[in-house]
Each structure stands twice: as C-alpha cells, then as structure tokens.
Amino acid sequence: MELEKILDGLKGFDSVIIKKVKTKRLIVKFVLSEIAEVQRLNEVEYSVSVVKGKRFYSYTFSGEEELDKIITGVKEGFNYTVESDIVPQLTENDGEVKVKEDNAELRSVIEEQDVSFIDSVLAKSEFPSSGIVNVYETTTELMTNKGFKGTETRIRADGYARSFNGEYSGQWAFFSDSLKEFNETLKKANEFASITGKVRIDDGKYNVVLSPLVVANFMVFFADFASAFSVMTASSFLAKYKKGEKVASELLTISDVPRKGRIAEFDDEATYTRDKEIIKDGVFNSLLFNNELAQIFGEKSTGNAGLIYPIAYSFEINSGEQSLDSLLASSKEVIFLNNNWYTRFQNYYEGTFSTVGRDAIVYYKEGKPQGVAGRIRISDSFPNLMKNVKGLGKDKYSVRWWDAPIPTISPYVYVDGVNITKAW
C-alpha cells in the first residue's frame, strides 16, 4: 500500500520506479570453533527514481521514512537535475509477478535464532575455525507507473570458514538454500589446512589450478567488464571485441544465471530476467544490457538493469571432465590457489591485474603436494587467463562470501602459463 501512495504522489513524471528491499537476517560469527556472536537484523532499503524528458533523479534511503517526506524529497531533488545523454527507460510491462520461496529450515533458523546445527558442525572440526554464517529472507518489491507490480521473496544461507593448523590455513565458502552445505564447507577448509610443509617458489610462469573461491572473486570484476556501460566507456577489455569473436579458450563458457540461481525474476526496469551466456565455448556472445544501453548498442535488454549501469546477478562456469587430482597432475609442476585477496587492476581496458594468494597455496610436482608456497602474487591479465584455460573440474561448487559477493557456481579451473611473483 505504501508504494502505491508514493506512486500516487509522483504523478507528472514520464517514468516512476519504486523499489523496496526488506531483509530479515541472522548473522552467526564464530571464532576458533566457538560461536562468539549471534545477531538478528531487520533491514529496509528504498529506492525511488523518476524520469522526465532527459532528466532523472534517484532517491535512496534505509529504514522507515514518512511518505510525504519521501515524495517531497524526490520532487525537490529533481529540481536540481540537468539533462543527461542517458536516462533510465522502463519496460512497457504492466504485469504482476509474485514469487515466494518456502524454506521451513532456514526460516526457523532466522525466527528462532536456532544455531544448534552450526554449533554441532563446529564441534566436529579437526582444526580451530573462524568465519561467518548468514541466513536471510529477502523480499523485493518493484512498482512502476506503467502498471508493473513485482514481489519476490528468497531465502538463502551463505558463509565461509577458515581453518587454522598452526601456521597453515585453508578456507571454503558456500551459497545454498540449506545449512547442510556448511558442514561440507568446514570439511574442505579443514582439508586444505591439513596440507603442511614449506616450499620456495621463484618468479616465473606456472600452470595453476584456481579454486572456485578464486574464480568467484574474479567474477566480481568480470561482472563490471561484461556490463555494457563499461564497454561504452572503454573501461573493459571486452571493448576490444565484437560479438562472435573468440575471447577465451573453447573450453570456457560463462553465464549470468538469475533464473537457474533463483536470484531475480525481474530487474530494476521491470524487464523479466533470463539466463544468458556471456562467453560461449570461448566466443564473445553477449554483454549485460538494460533498456537504455541496449538502445545505444542496437540490442535488446538482457534483463540486467541496474539503472544506467547493467549488473550481473549470479555466475555459472561450465564444468569439464576432470577430477581435482587429475587437474593437479596435468603437468609436471602445478600451483594450487585455494583463496585470494587484494585483487587490483592496473588497466581495465587491457584487463591487467594482480592478486595475492591466501591460505593453501600449494606447489605440486608430478601430482603430489610438495609444500605450501605462502604469499605469492598472480600478475597477469584476464584475457590471458581466459585464453589459457586448459582444463575444468567435473564438480561444481556454489560459493559466496564477503570477498566474492556475487553468487558463483564454478568448478576448479586449470590455467596454463600464469605469471607468478612473490608478494612479500
């Protein structure tokens, strides 16, 4: 009812988009296998956007505000706008959509603050482990002056565990509709932490196996590269390519999967979302478009608005046929990267970047672990990594955590000839 009242108070604009996101969240923080804090949060975020001619204004806020104050704030803010070359364009969609996921397990965890399962899993951990588990129910409402009314409620759990074995460590993460995945997350973190011994790695080119955690971190940046806005502003290495050109190994397919991932039914311009392949069998297939960027590029919206700036919802990388052991034995020397951080780009147009390995960075020789290499840095480019993918794991993992906030379904990825330097 409140969205209708806001809409009613903003007559006279060409387009009005009102979005409300309400989240009930339980955050469980654990330190050295002991639950240290449990927080229950109720969050509300609003976004009201209006368009008239070539001018637009967006008003965002968290918490509750009086409706009259919202309407007045939007009208007053619009008075300070100037004409823009790009303005949001609503889809002519007057449909009504309602999606409500029912998940008794996770809803009970939120409502009852029931952390017994998490506690029981931590009690079985081989090594002391620290991390966070989030359980949340998110309801998104979108209403436009074109008649569209959309409501979707999703319930998910995500989190990570970092296990410590003296000076060695391992990490894993998960994104799921069940807390059962936390058990597997802790097992894998323990497994990687169990690899011990030290080995020195000299600077040079190495064949590497990237874990799904590393891939998910890279996908945060790939989301920006795949946005039509980044290509238009030449801040993406994909700006060099045309649709249909080869940009990666024929083994590699990268898709945005809002439907398969059950992330979003509609975007911020009331366009229905769809799964799409950005790179298919190594070939550049599609950017991410909203209505206004699609018009500029002579394309159709892919259902990825983001007003002005198209966004990704969830990524999936295709699987291959090899086990992890097989990938690690694919060449005489292989470096396995369990985790990474400090990913920084030197040149977005070239895709050149560096990232520092973290946790179990293991040097393998003839398929057998020789020891942990410590802090090493990948100093290379996204185009090189994508073109040199030579193997994919047969198993895929769904991960999300604070350093990889876009849900990503990925196998282990084997890459040839990656430039490695010592971080410190």
Q: What are its keywords?
A:
single chain; 7-stranded mixed beta sheet; 6-stranded mixed beta sheet
SSE topology sketch:
Layout: H1 2-8, E1 15-31, E2 34-52, E3 55-62, H2 67-78, E4 96-100, H3 104-112, H4 116-123, E5 129-144, E6 149-165, E7 168-176, H5 180-193, E8 204-210, H6 212-226, H7 228-232, E9 254-256, E10 276-280, E11 283-284, H8 291-297, E12 315-317, H9 324-328, E13 333-347, E14 352-365, E15 368-372, E16 376-381, H10 382-387, E17 389-392, E18 397-401, E19 404-410, E20 413-422
Describe this structure in words.
The chain has 424 residues and is α+β, with helices and mostly antiparallel strands. Helices cover 21% and strands 42% of the residues. The strands form three sheets. Strands 1, 2, 3, 4, 5, 6 and 7 form a seven-stranded mixed β-sheet that branches. The N and C termini lie far apart (57 Å). 44% of the residues are buried.
Short overview:
21% of the residues lie in helices and 42% in strands. It is of the alpha+beta class and 424 residues long.
User: How far apart lie the N and C ends?
Assistant: 57 Å
User: How large is the count of helical segments?
Assistant: 10
Structural class by secondary-structure content: alpha+beta
Radius of gyration: 23 Å
Q: What percent of residues adopt helix (DSSP H or I)?
A: 10-25%
Strand content: 35-45%
The number of distinct β-strands equals: 20
Main beta-sheet strand count, sense and barrel state: 7 strands, mixed
What's the overall geometry?
Answer: globular
Order of helices and strands: HEEEHEHHEEEHEHHEEEHEHEEEEHEEEE
If you average the pLDDT, what whole number results? 97
Low-confidence stretches: none
